[in-house]
Amino acid sequence: MRAKKVGMHSSRTDLFTFFTAEVHRHLHVVLAFSPIGDAFRTRLRMFPSLVTSTTIDWFAAWPEDALRTTAERYLADVDLTEDLRARIGAQCMLFHSSIHVLTGRYRDEAKRFYYVTPTSYLGLLQLFKTLLASRQRDVSAAKQRYENGLGKLLFTEGQVNAMKEELEVLKPQLVAASADTDVLLLSVQRETADADKVKAVVSIDEAAAQAEAAVVLAIKTECEGDLALAMPALAASIAALNTLTKNDISEVKGMKSPPFAVKLVMEAVCIIKSLKPTKARALVPRCWLLA
Fold first, then answer.
1. 122: which residues sit within 8 A by CB, 6+ positions away?
2. Are 92 and 67 in contact (CB under 8 A)?
3. For the residues of 210-232, what is the DSSP string, one character each?
4. Which of 127, 55, 143 is nearest to 92 (CA)?
5. What is the DSSP letter of 273?
6. Which residues, in sequence order, are CB contacts of 6 under 8 Å at separation 6+?
7. Residues 116, 99: contact at Cβ < 8 Å?
8. pLDDT tens digits, residue range 56-65?
9. Buried (b) or exposed (e) across 120-154, using 16+ Cβ within 10 A?
10. Which residues pair with 285 in a beta bridge?
């Protein structure tokens, strides 16, 4: 559109010429040099066009008002009151100004140069913002922990008060239960004393029973020993008894006067069967005849 207005749009050459002219007219080159030392003077002698074809802007040290205003604008997005922001700006200005004094002393005493530029001042402001944000986060976290702890304490206090109220309501029941427990404890103590007496008597009876059991066990052992000795004879007797026949019994019955051994055996049988012997006509014990 601008090429049409000036009549330079008929060909590609005209358009390129117009473009070059516009670039040449609007192109600005900014060169930043430090005037400190011999390097700047050397460049000016080597390239005189830096002086003849350029506009040189000399930037001296910032005045205190500029430093204060820059600090206040730089800290505008920080959550601060206006009065505090102004005081912080004045303090930052004082820091930067005092550095110039110290660099002068350093130059005079050590013969060495230390340059303080506006970039250093902006770095100071950025460092302050970073440290302030870090401290604010720490304080916010501590505040949050404090609020959480306070909330838990308040909740605990409410729970304790509720428990106190419940205890006040249950206190009569607790007193009654305590009285019942005391009565039950006395009853248990009395029953325990009675049980101890019974236990003492039972212990005596138990000791006597154990002594008697020991005697009985000894008798049992002795009887079992005697029985073990008599069992073979019993077995032999049973075996001999199985050999008896009807003729043997008839023979014994026919005896008018049985031998002494037969009489002795029959008397033993009567004793075992609890039968009193009676004399029959044949002078044979009745129990023998019954057998």
1. 70, 74
2. yes
3. HHHHHHHHHHHHHHHHHHHHHHH
4. 127
5. T
6. 18
7. yes
8. 877 777 778 8
9. ebeebbeebeeeeeeeeeeeeeeeeeeeeeeeeee
10. 279
Residues 143/93, Cβ–Cβ less than 8 Å: no
pLDDT tens-digit profile of 201-238? Answer: 888 888 888 888 888 888 888 888 888 887 887 788 77
Dist CA 268 CA 275 (whole Å)? 10
> What amino acid is encoded at 3 in this protein?
A
> Would the pTM of this model clear 0.70, i.e. be above it?
no
Q: What share of the chain is helix, strand, coil (3-state, %, to 5)?
A: 75, 0, 25
pLDDT confidence of residue 288: 45
Q: Which two tokens stand for residue 285?
A: 């014990």
The tens digit of pLDDT for each residue in 34-87 reads: 766 677 788 888 988 888 888 887 777 777 888 888 888 888 888 778 888 888
Exposure on the CB side of residue 205, measured as CA atoms within 13 A = 6
Q: 118 Cβ partners below 8 Å, 6+ apart?
A: 62
Question: Which three-class secondary structure state does DSSP give residue 279?
Answer: strand
Q: Cβ distance 105 to 114 under 8 Å? A: no
Torsion angles phi and psi, residue 80, rounded to 5: -135, 155
Reference 267, options 252, 253, 287; nearest CA is 287
Taking the C-alpha atoms of residue 126 and residue 77, their distance in angstroms, rounded to an integer, is: 12
Q: Please state, in angstroms and rounded to a whole number, the distance separating the CA atoms of residues 45 and 18.
A: 35
Structure tokens at 102: 């110290």
* Structure tokens belonging to residue 222: 């002795």
Q: What are phi and psi of 76, to 5 degrees?
A: -65, -30
